[in-house]
Amino acid sequence: MDIRQATIDDLLGMQNANLLNLPENYTFKYYLYHALTWPELSYVAVDPRGRIVGYILAKMEEEPSEEPCGHVTSISVLRPYRRLGLANKLMKQSQEAMVAHYNAHHITLHVRKSNRAAISLYRDTLGFEVHAMEKSYYADGEDAYGMRYIFTGSK
Ligand code: ACO
Questions:
Q1: pLDDT tens across 13-37, in order?
Q2: Is residue 4 classed exposed, middle or buried when 0-12, 13-18 and 19+ CB atoms within 10 A define those classes?
Q3: Atom of ligand 1 nearest to the CA of 109
Q4: Which atom of ligand 1 is nearest to the CA of 112?
Q5: Ligand 1: does its nearest atom lie under 6 Å from the Cβ of 93?
Q6: Of all helices (H) and strands (E), which one includes residue 155?
Q7: How does 77-112 read in b/e, with b if 16+ C-beta sit within 10 Å?
Q8: How far is Cα 22 from Cα 31, in angstroms, rounded to an integer?
Q9: 48: helix, strand or coil
Q10: How many whole angstroms separate alpha carbon 81 and alpha carbon 53?
């Protein structure tokens, strides 16, 4: 499986994977906004025939803050391709680009409290910590953990 930077041509495939994998969905315009504004931060995993089997859609935080902050809008991997290390690689590629291109100090994301697979990926594999609990963050009323990872070398 190849991991590469996402292009405009990948956006429909990313949106399709998102619709299959997650209840949090976005307009095509929002994918386009990510790709045009932060083209270095979103990646896809593709099979040998070029089909998208996983993606990370990421951005820089737009609210004014003291330090530049990266944010993962969405990440997912199609079911038959899970536990192959793809999400780990997608996250690392995006994190490296956040630091290299935007001097990111840290990265944040939200995750459902019940999403054990994703929480394990973020906390156990990637070293994120829970920094907030957001009540009823999701449309169906489920709480979110706000998670954060401070990049090495940042204070
Ligand atoms: N159960 C427990 N731990 C898991 C699981 C699982 N099902 N899946 C991954 N992990 C942890 C493990 O520590 C794993 O390391 P190991 O395989 O050596 O034990 C580590 O994460 C790395 O796993 P990857 O193989 O890189 O993860 P994968 O490619 O399978 O993708 C993902 C993980 C993205 C959570 C996938 O299960 C998925 O697409 N789920 C549905 C969509 C989703 O929940 N996305 C995240 C929403 S939050 C957000 O988008 C910000």
A1: 999 999 999 999 999 999 999 999 9
A2: exposed
A3: 51
A4: 48
A5: no
A6: none
A7: bbeeeeeeebbebbbbbbbebbbeebebbbbbbbbb
A8: 15
A9: coil
A10: 7
- pLDDT value at position 154? 62
Tokens of 71: 């944010």
State the maximum Cα–Cα separation within the chain, in Å, rounded to a whole number: 44
Sheet of 2-5: strand order equals 2-5, 43-46, 52-60, 69-77, 106-112, 144-150, 129-134
Residue 137 has which token pair?
Answer: 């963050």
Report the alpha-carbon distance of residue 61 to residue 67 in Å, rounded.
10
| Amino acid at residue number 108 | T
- The reply to whether ligand 1 has any atom less than 6 angstroms from the CB of 130 is no
Q: What are the E-state strand segments in 1-155?
A: 2-5, 43-46, 52-60, 69-77, 106-112, 129-134, 144-150
Predicted pLDDT of residue 155: 52
Identify any residues that bridge with 129 across adjacent strands, giving them in sequence order.
148
pTM over 0.90: yes
